[in-house]
Amino acid sequence: MGQKIVIVGGVAAGPKAACRVKRLMQDAEVTIIEQDTLFSYGGCGIPYYVSGDVSDESELRSTSFHMVRNKDFFKDAKGVIVKSGTRAMAIDRKNKTVQVEDVASGEKSDIPYDSLMIATGSRPFILPIPGADLDGVFTISDLHKAIEIKDRIARQKVDKAVVIGGGAIGLEMAEAFKDLWGVETSVVEFMPQVLPRIVDKPFSSMLTKHMRDNDVDIFLGEGAEEIIGVDGKVTGLRTGNRTIDADLVVMAAGVRPRSEIAAEAGLQISPMGAIVVNERMQTSDPSIYAAGDCVEVMNLVTGKKAYAPLGSLANKEGRVVGDNMAGIPSTFKGCVGSFIMKAFDVCIGATGLSLDVALAEGFDADVALTAPSDRAHFFPTEAVVCFQMVFDRRTRRVLGVQGFGPMGDGISARIDAAAGYITMGATIEDFGNLEMAYAPPFSAAIDSINALAYVADNLCDGRLRKVGIDNFLAWMDDFSAEPEWVALDIRHPNEATPCVEKFGAGKWVAVPYNEIRKRYRELPTDKKLIILCDAGTRSFEIQSFLNSVEIRNTLVLSGGFSMLRRIGIDWDPA
Amino acid sequence: MGQKIVIVGGVAAGPKAACRVKRLMQDAEVTIIEQDTLFSYGGCGIPYYVSGDVSDESELRSTSFHMVRNKDFFKDAKGVIVKSGTRAMAIDRKNKTVQVEDVASGEKSDIPYDSLMIATGSRPFILPIPGADLDGVFTISDLHKAIEIKDRIARQKVDKAVVIGGGAIGLEMAEAFKDLWGVETSVVEFMPQVLPRIVDKPFSSMLTKHMRDNDVDIFLGEGAEEIIGVDGKVTGLRTGNRTIDADLVVMAAGVRPRSEIAAEAGLQISPMGAIVVNERMQTSDPSIYAAGDCVEVMNLVTGKKAYAPLGSLANKEGRVVGDNMAGIPSTFKGCVGSFIMKAFDVCIGATGLSLDVALAEGFDADVALTAPSDRAHFFPTEAVVCFQMVFDRRTRRVLGVQGFGPMGDGISARIDAAAGYITMGATIEDFGNLEMAYAPPFSAAIDSINALAYVADNLCDGRLRKVGIDNFLAWMDDFSAEPEWVALDIRHPNEATPCVEKFGAGKWVAVPYNEIRKRYRELPTDKKLIILCDAGTRSFEIQSFLNSVEIRNTLVLSGGFSMLRRIGIDWDPA
Question: Is B279 on the interface with A (CB under 8 A)?
């Protein structure tokens, strides 16, 4: 018998490493230790199991060729032993053993290893508020919880649900409750936006609007203060502002690395509690590897270690562990943090840094925004999408891209292309020339991501002067916020004239795009002109022209009305 | 008045450069010279106009905000003068003038320039065969031809059409004829596959099968020898093998650069007739720029100049011309040749080099193929896709990626991500870690492009030994082609047993994937085992295991039955 490989944790990174190392070293004895009885499942599929898109939980534990990944499967097909229902208690690094306990019997034993992998994953953060232990309060920590939630809904025990946390899992669960089951659903998010740190405000606002349009209540900037119950059962959630009735509360307030066993064994742990590993996924003990939600990884944009608990990364890291255990010096260099999410009929995606994060990290960051067609504008399935590029003004390096559009793979296409490019350190100019495959059913001749780079290029070189969306919306709420501003609406008169009538010619001037060159002398010159069109593109053209006739006190609203409508303004009479 | 900018050619690169330079230098006098009366149109949209997806030709000449890009539009909105119906006859470089002729009146005049751009595009290659001048024979050279074709079909003058040329335009036209109008349609391609040099044989075969399944006849390896007519009207096409009746013949046999005016002016021209430009799109005369289908560009994979007549590149190049004319030193470094095409319910895409081209270019090239799920296998809309990676064995650099799958943006997502990565010189290992945004509705935790890189990695390191598809199909046609081969079918018995019954136990052995570890002693050891599963993944696992029990005489069919079925085998009884 060859080397003894022991892997603690059987969900994503663990099984991937186990199968890979066994393939590479068939004589190795590979053992997975897993405290749960259900393992090797697609945790990211839980919202789709709860919604009913996936009818049976076993599908989440199956291969693409429809075999359930149970103990027999691992033994027979993979040659890997799974000790499920077995908890790893401690690591004895000197003697190279893992002390384990049978969860059912309490029986303890030691398992020797030559190489060990810690893939203990993460646990949901439990908010320290009263009522967290009431019946009907759930986290999405494992498949058992998911089964119980779905069972309660299917037995019609749930009329009203509250999700605490507006991150991806929380929003996906909210969609599952509402869309398939018609449960009255609310989301409570402590931060002033959903998906904080993942996308910036305009994009989170587009998502929030779409979810509200689909009858999910979303309360932003509200902390959950108490979960209320009667007779031990949850009846509602109290925030700083209100009490929301609920039969079911899901806490989706983020996750924390499960690193206790590593810490107790004296392995190096990061300040935020994740296991520290090198590019080969080795911990501070070279015969112990770690991967998945329990480790920190390099953020390839900031060059700093970060916590990125994503199933796709866990699999990549797991393969690198398997390789290295077998003597192949593969590396996992880090991540840029690609993200994508379905929400009813739309999707939202991001990669790299948001503007908020980029600024906090000290970049000289700015943002370009555009709202182009997702394919040739004459193709029947064309739709408007919104994209944003975060870039560093000094180096012109692209730091991140965000996208929002109809459900489908069109946003993925841009986010994925951007992710690879950002990994390689691409600049705005690189993105301008990024070669998106073009045919009218798939893209525009100038693809939305190229168009986005052009906006960034014009911004970066000072050719495009823009107004911030927040400032613009504040002015629309109350013109006195910027008394010197006047809107210059260059859309078709059918769209612009109603705005002039509503807001008055002192605040809203309408000259069509193609008449400005003839009629620019009509424009007020003692005011700042806020140039408005549908996407921002024509506005930039007009700004460029007005410069040449010495009307320089102008700003462009990037993304224009296409973006405003998705954010959900209620004042456009057009 | 500022500089005089003259641009010859008004379809894609020309108008892009004109508008860009005018925005940057508002005092410039920018003039487009265009021989046609219709200009600034999306030529790639012609098949969709002919099919009826786009109802009116003016939509191809409109902006996304529904203004027709006619002379007035260019003048009023863009500040650009278009002299349409005006042919550029010659360039006088010494005096910096362009001699032009009014097409209608024949009147000649000289237009002076400070900077000149040649954007004369391409012309269709006219096959030198008899009958090319018959009524009913068309090329897709401009919008007038498209209008006339559609008009004939709409007036029900076309029952049968033949397309000469199985490139993208030919196939898109064939779909247009068949899908929307029900015209009996054939495609004749001289090469032994459609999309030659763009994709390799397996992928062209998948596309051919799908088009044939949709009742488009495709004749491969057949040259068009004569177009037959009666009374001056086309009645059919004669190839080396047959005569096909037709009321309409479309010649789509490739395009050639229109570079005569540049050649006559003494500018440097490539051996294949394209205008030579540097990264700033300057010709050998620094005050003359060129862009679009009339120039050659750097292929970023081979490092050699190549001809890449694509509308998306024309726009990028045009912007670079505009920048440089205005003193901004932008560059267009070249292309990798991204390609995507819709065909009925599928799409096919490619970027970088095909295996054929890579080998011809002298790379130590090999190919990895896989047929995974396009998203989480448990997600309802999941479908099998086929991907291929061309790589250099010595450097491990990825040279190209091809994909085939259901119509949508899922193939684009992988092709686009690959294009950016290939541009940056990414290796197989980079592709293994390429961070595709993951959620079950969009991708698998191990995305298909990561899985593809893993196959390439295993191949490159000699861990995976594969059989070529052509060799395998030849053996299936006639077992005597490889008398020592035996298929090892590891699929479910429901799938494998019928094959054993059909082909006999001497040629077809069935042991399920998850029983091999127990039953490998049943396998014949005096034969070469060709391991077969659905995608190739399980076959590799089994090959790895069999190595360890000293059964090394095995080969894997990458892509497995999922790929075979798409190519269109007729012998699988399962």
Answer: no
